[in-house]
Design a protein that fits this description.
Layout lengths: L3 E5 L6 H9 L18 E4 L7 E5 L14 H16 L2 E7 L6 H13 L3 E6 L6 H7 L8 E3 L8 H11 L5 H5 L6 E6 L6 H9 L1 H6 L1 E3 L6 E7 L2 E6 L13 H4 L2 H10 L2 E7 L6 H13 L2 E7 L6 H14 L7 E4 L8 H15 L5 H14 L4 E2 L2 E2 L1 E7 L6 E7 L6 H14 L8 E6 L2
Parallel strand pairs: 1-3, 1-4, 4-5, 5-6, 7-10, 7-11, 11-12, 12-13, 17-18
Antiparallel strand pairs: 2-3, 8-9, 9-10, 14-15, 16-17
Helix pairs in contact: 10-11, 14-15
The structure holds guanosine-5'-diphosphate (GDP) (2 copies).
Family: Belongs to the TRAFAC class TrmE-Era-EngA-EngB-Septin-like GTPase superfamily. EngA (Der) GTPase family.
Keywords: GTP-binding, Nucleotide-binding, Repeat, Ribosome biogenesis
Subunit structure: Associates with the 50S ribosomal subunit.
Amino acid sequence: MLPLVALVGRPNVGKSTLFNALTRSRDALVHDQPGVTRDRNYGVCRLDPEAPFAVVDTGGIAGEGVHLETQGLAGATARQARSAAEESDLVLFVVDGREGASALDDEILAWLRKTARPTVLVINKIDGMDETTVRSDFARYGFSDVLAVSAAHRQGIDELLEEILARLPEEGDAEELDDDPSRMRIAFVGRPNVGKSTLVNRLLGEERMIASEVPGTTRDSIAVDLERDGRQYRLVDTAGLRRKSKVDEAVEKFSIVKTLQAIEQCQVAVLLLDATEGVTDQDASVLGAILDAGRALVVAINKWDGLTVYQREQAESLLARKLSFVEWAEAVRISAKHGSGLRELFRAIHRAHASATRELGTSEVNKALEIAYETNPPPSIRGHVSKLRFVHPGGTNPPTFIVHGTRLKVLPESYKRYLENFFRKRFKLVGTPVRFVFKEGV
Ligand code: GDP
Ligand code: GDP
């Protein structure tokens, strides 16, 4: 289970800057592709790739934990952020080292004490400040753990990360769901109302859904087992699996943290889209989370039944354009309501899983690099040319290739994409991200 860390503090102390420092890695290959967006408030910190955790920026919490915005959609999002703080494994109480302790900080602290979550005090903006003076200003808060950082300059982030990891619950909960390796773990994810519950219920049948719930050890994590055409699956933490709650407001029941956790736990993520609505920003940010996690991906375009022939043509061209940056992912048209397209959906899921877990040998990947290199050597950049010497497989799920060479700093992004496409074609890798790691020297 992906632990949850909440950033709490009054406006302008630097929470969103800190959020970015924790959640935005500098891995250019995966990030910053046009068409992928990242949620502004929810993300996953992978600074230690072995110990990822979810981060929520709770936004503008005011006194007593009351959000500044409480109306409408923004209000629902704010309430969700607030309850995320209440459910988090660790709170980072962020304060402004330049301005010192304020009345609003005092109020937030009083609320935090009531929530009784483990809390670390993070004094931000200490760049150019005298740390001892700044610390003494907040001494009366009585925290035993105080970190002084500059989020904007990434100063103190390593120490903060160490502190966070030391405070988070021990791993092990995740293994709870891993106990049956013969079951492929699938997550059906997507924004509210795309049809996740309808799909999952159709796959399972109502009674079976209740009968075979696999409760997790923490919170209300739920997985459910499915047998289909003689194969075993485990559907992990899907919103659609939860019993219908009284609060049926779509935004309220949609939990971004649960979505991030489901993505983390699955082997194949099925991103549901609503054919009648195209690709929204929220769809794009769920997609971003799947790519960041390196999960195999199948896009299921749901509600295909509701479209006229003309609308289908429109939808096809729109989706092709919006999803062009993940053209390696298969898109399947389905109707959860009528149960059509599901056979094709599961075929695509299996193809994606097979690609993601395919073991490749050192000699075959070197052969591929050699041919790619000879067909199209890297260009000269201001008189410098990268040399690619050899490559070895760096793991599966997603397939990873470690390329060793020299002058790799001048290897253009376009060449990295060329290599990726070349390897994809040669090894028929569909439905999975592919990672290249470039290492200077041999
Ligand atoms: P939030 O409202 O708590 O999310 O705060 P923001 O992250 O939006 O930051 C508020 C302001 O503080 C922005 O102008 C940031 O550039 C600035 N800021 C954030 N972190 C630092 C820091 O470490 N040092 C300094 N000097 N300014 C910072
Ligand atoms: P969730 O929030 O993603 O779990 O979405 P639901 O499964 O609750 O579905 C939201 C709405 O879309 C409901 O009114 C469903 O009846 C409807 N819906 C779901 N799948 C389909 C479909 O394949 N075709 C059509 N026409 N409507 C669908």
